[in-house]
Specification:
The longest helix has 20 residues, at about 135-150. This protein is about 45% helix and about 10% strand. It has about 260 residues and is α/β, with parallel strands linked by helices. Helix 4 packs antiparallel against helix 5. The chain has helices at about 10-15, 45-55, 70-80, 105-115, 120-130, 135-150, 160-170, 195-205, 220-225, 225-240, and strands at about 60-65, 85-90, 185-190, 210-215. Strands 1-2-3-4 form a four-stranded parallel sheet, sandwiched between helices. The protein has a single domain (about 5-105, about 155-240), classed as Alpha/Beta hydrolase fold, catalytic domain (Rossmann fold), CATH 3.40.50.1820.
């Protein structure tokens, strides 16, 4: 999952895909049910966390999916543990280019407002940061409030937020993207003001086996806004790169 969010935010994907896949989502250290962990994190260390979870589940390989900061972690998994990736999906993320990876001016303002303005400010700024105005109008105030309750139910401590900011700021894979061997699906939300859509184009130009799934009317919260269409794209991507050999001995869905 992305910056400051619990694994439960994957609900729209896990609830759908667990009908025919074993699914695992988890909380980063300092988030949700996880221990708080060290103060300053790095993206490679967070990738190691994910690999340890796979080890604990006895998963030799998996379809790795990451959104935003989680997409940065997923890149490191694909680079550092290529044999563990059956396929790779990177949603609304970037390769760490110092200036190009900054949000739009509006996105930066809303991000900082939500980061340092307290719960009320975050509740007000987060919808406008994640979703286009047209979608907010269509879902309505009550629908958005119910959705945000999952994201904001247990916000991480400032210590964790700063540690994750440190990890994101230091993230850089642009010189190594050509080494990614996994078949990669890049999800490009066209109205993202937090991570510019052009960042997906940069990834597409550098990752050898990549294809792009475009949602031109979606914002950074594409996993919720376009859940049905995204889930169909994920299922198709997984099937396209599924080995004939079974990976898991158990067929029951699992969540962490």
């Amino acid at each position: 999952m992305g910056f400051g969010m619990s694994g439960a935010v994957w609900g729209p994907q896990v609830d759908e895909l667990r009908s025919d896949h074993r699914c695992c989502h988890y909380d980063h250290l300092g988030v949700g049910e996880s221990d708080r962990g060290p103060f300053l994190r790095t993206i490679p260390a967070m990738a190691d966390d994910a690999i340890r979870i796979m080890d604990d589940l006895d998963w030799d390989r998996s379809h790795v999916v990451g959104v935003s900061m989680g997409g940065m972690i997923a890149q490191e998994i694909a680079l550092r543990s290529a044999d563990r990736c059956r396929s790779l999906t990177l949603i609304a993320t970037h390769d760490g280019a110092p200036v190009a990876s900054l949000p739009t001016f509006k996105g930066m303002g809303l991000f900082l407002q939500g980061l340092f303005g307290g719960r009320k400010a975050r509740m007000k700024s987060l919808p406008r940061l994640l979703y286009p105005a047209e979608f907010l109008e269509s879902i309505g105030t009550e629908g958005m409030r119910a959705h945000l309750s999952v994201r904001l139910d247990r916000p991480p401590a400032l210590r964790t937020v700063l540690g994750q900011l440190h990890a994101v700021w230091r993230h850089s894979t642009r010189s190594r993207l050509s080494q990614i061997e996994a078949h990669t699906l890049l999800v490009r939300p066209g109205k993202d003001i937090l991570i510019r859509p052009t960042q997906t184009d940069r990834l597409a130009a550098r990752i050898p086996n990549a294809r792009v799934l475009r949602f031109d009317d979606a914002g950074h919260g594409v996993t919720f806004q376009k859940a049905a269409e995204l889930n169909a794209g994920l299922r198709e991507h997984f099937a396209r790169h599924e080995s004939a050999e079974p990976v898991f001995e158990r067929s029951d869905p699992a969540r962490l």
